[in-house]
Amino acid sequence: MDGHVLGWIVLLWLAAEVEGLQVTMPEKKKVAMLFQPALLRCHFSTSSTQPAVVQWRFKSYCQDRVGEALGMATSGLQTMSKRNLDWDPYLDCVDSRRTVRVVASKQGSAVTIGDFYKERDISIVHDADLQIGKLMWGDSGLYYCLIITPDDVEGKNEESVELLVLD
């Protein structure tokens, strides 16, 4: 009887420890300088025995955050964002109103660079970090780290970081 109880305790402990796929990023926002390198960190844990596919996607701002930061643009959307604290006029809009593209993908040790970035010094290093050799003006925006595993589909499979490139 004691063996059954111990078995159930171990099973419950293991079930509590396995939460499925979990993607995290240590930074939610990163400010970097033009023409400097940047490393966007992405960590994940999985119970999968299969190699994960890592994909980084870029989404432009919904409106010009850099221009606004420099005092060159103003918007009535700021008033609206104060009413709804969860809504950000720079980040929250449908994808059809912004540029969306794949930056890079990695499966095993093979890294594939998206068409727009082929002439750039970009790679996925370590397990899932995005390394950009020289930042350009158009690099400001949201970067999504998406992890795909064939046999671990529960949990959180993507996370984003905002990158703001300044002169």
Automatic annotation (TrEMBL):
<dbReference type="InterPro" id="IPR051874">
    <property type="entry name" value="Ig-like_domain-LISCH7"/>
</dbReference>
<feature type="domain" description="Immunoglobulin">
    <location>
        <begin position="27"/>
        <end position="166"/>
    </location>
</feature>
<dbReference type="GO" id="GO:0031016">
    <property type="term" value="P:pancreas development"/>
</dbReference>
<dbReference type="InterPro" id="IPR003599">
    <property type="entry name" value="Ig_sub"/>
</dbReference>
<dbReference type="InterPro" id="IPR013783">
    <property type="entry name" value="Ig-like_fold"/>
</dbReference>
<protein>
    <recommendedName>
        <fullName>Immunoglobulin domain-containing protein</fullName>
    </recommendedName>
</protein>
<dbReference type="GO" id="GO:0016020">
    <property type="term" value="C:membrane"/>
</dbReference>
<dbReference type="InterPro" id="IPR036179">
    <property type="entry name" value="Ig-like_dom_sf"/>
</dbReference>
